[in-house]
Design brief:
Helix content is 33%, strand content 23%. The protein is built from eight helices and ten strands. The protein has helices spanning 53-61, 100-104, 106-110, 119-132, 148-161, 178-192, 211-217, 251-272, and strands spanning 9-19, 26-37, 42-46, 68-73, 76-77, 85-88, 166-170, 203-207, 220-225, 230-236. Adenosine-5'-triphosphate binds next to β2 and α1.
Length: 273
Amino acid sequence: MPSKAQPKLRLRNVSKEYVAPRTGQRTLAVSDFTLDVRAGEFLCIVGPSGCGKSTVLNMIAGLDQPTGGDIEMDGHHVRGPGAERGVMFQDYALFPWKSVRDNVGFGLRHGTPGAGLTAAERNDRVNHFVNMVGLAGAEAKFPHQLSGGMKQRVALARLLANGPDVLLMDEPLGALDAQTRMVLQVELLRIWGEAAEEGDRKTVVFITHGIDEAVFLADRVVVMSSHPGRVSAVIDIDIPRPRRESIRSEPRFGQLTDEIWSLIRDEAYQAIA
Ligand SMILES: Nc1ncnc2c1ncn2[C@@H]1O[C@H](COP(=O)(O)OP(=O)(O)OP(=O)(O)O)[C@@H](O)[C@H]1O
Ligand SMILES: [Mg+2]
């Protein structure tokens, strides 16, 4: 049994070197990346473009293997993908030919999360999460009939319906307009369990380009530097929960976003130069 003190995720000196198949050219994308993620924590990762954020997330997801170091979940070595770690990407990755209901229920019908459930139980589960993300009434619609914000909600409902312990999110709100994004940030905190006991919250690793998004959401923000990707700082976000819209205009919010921006500013300019 995982003890309370044991981190949910433990990354120890993780590195990833890509080798191009034809040229043999090596890219050290991530080096010596060490981090513990606590159970129930909302952790955001920010850093300049190309610093290795997605590489780190994909390795936690088990979609990619580290070339050095070790990743553990609940004390067990991560060897590959698992239903207890759900992944959500920026581009929704919905099935265009399936309805909202069938997209949300896909993992329950075809994967391990739904094994042992009756058809009626699966249906109830799909309905529960469709309602939770505010899509009741849209169950029969297809992705092309939905706005970007609605598609993102479908992807979120699908992720949650599979019942993962750990949510791995790679810029999940990146494609949205600023207003929809702010609304979904608040909803995401509600769904994560901001109002619940810490022990009842999911563990979230959330990648974003938005420093203000990271400060709004996170318990801690990991700032990465690039070439190779490393942890350059870990910032505690000491803004009380529940986080309301009004915190965005508070001085502490501005101080934290300024502090984080100052850590990545130079590299961010270099990345696009
Ligand atoms: N399959 C691959 N083969 C070779 N190099 C790769 C591969 N995937 C990523 N890289 C390189 O690894 C580095 C980190 O890439 P990664 O996608 O993790 O960055 P990122 O921080 O997610 O960037 P962004 O913010 O733009 O999404 C980059 O230099 C990238 O070019
Ligand atoms: Mg990325």
